[in-house]
Amino acid sequence: MVLDMGNQSSVTMFILLGFSEYPHLRAPLFLLFFITYMVTLIGNLGIIVVRRINPKLHTPMYFFLSHLSLLDICYSSVFTPKLLEILIVEDRTISFKGCMTQFFFICAFVITEMFMLAVMAYDRFVAVCNPLLYTVAMSPKLCALLVAGTYMWGVFCSLTITYSLLQLSYCGPNIINHFGCEYSAILSLSCSDPTFSQVICLIISIFNETCSLLIILASYVFIVVTIIKMPSKGGFQKALSTCSSHLTAISIFHGIILLLYCVPNSKNSWLVVKVATVLFTVMIPMLNPLIYSLRNKDVKGTVSRLMTLKLHSHAT
Q: Which key words tag this protein in UniProt (predicted)?
């Protein structure tokens, strides 16, 4: 588990506690998380496929939504399989490199999704406030650049924070009181001064949360002003319907982020952190397809046509 390297010792393996303090819940938790993960994969893949099939959905909004679905699949797949594994096997170890790799990807995908939601808010602002110029303003080139920018920024921030963690020494204990390699759980195992990493993480977190929320708030302030000025009730309802799904997704996403990072740093708070992380990495990716598809006639129509075709092909 521990490898001596000159004057330093370096942990080469971590043990993930997960929910081991609740052995009687392991089987029901495995079943719950497995079903949730399957629903996440089917729901998000469904949105990607439905967008490709239905020409009506070849719009900027659904282009961004398909990338949101891809991100949901990715960051759920970084955490959930390992969570399922440690619920059913006794060997709950993860290598040091595997732990840092898991942290890098989850951090990159979460930051990317944070700004993808901000981009979607800007898209809704253009759609509601400048509907006649929407297709011109949100050109395919601009949409591609916005998406590429969110991915690149997510990778850059994640690389920076992961690098700061790699500069620390880990000389034991090597037990992570979590079901994955979450930042505060890794940092608690460091036997060197973590100030540099904490400052880097704090700066990046505050900058990202502030910028993404400012973009979202500014977009929705303009949207609300435009909706209030609308003379017809039909236009008001259409604009409200266009934005309600996105507002729901934003509220859940940022609400759980704030819960995660506002929890006091104490032993009693680890259960809250674990539950919040489960909500963030397991539940949110499942909820997003439901939030965006249940209120959308085009998505529901395409799904029902696909199901009808499937049933018809089986019948013949």
A: Cell membrane, G-protein coupled receptor, Glycoprotein, Membrane, Olfaction, Receptor, Sensory transduction, Transducer, Transmembrane, Transmembrane helix
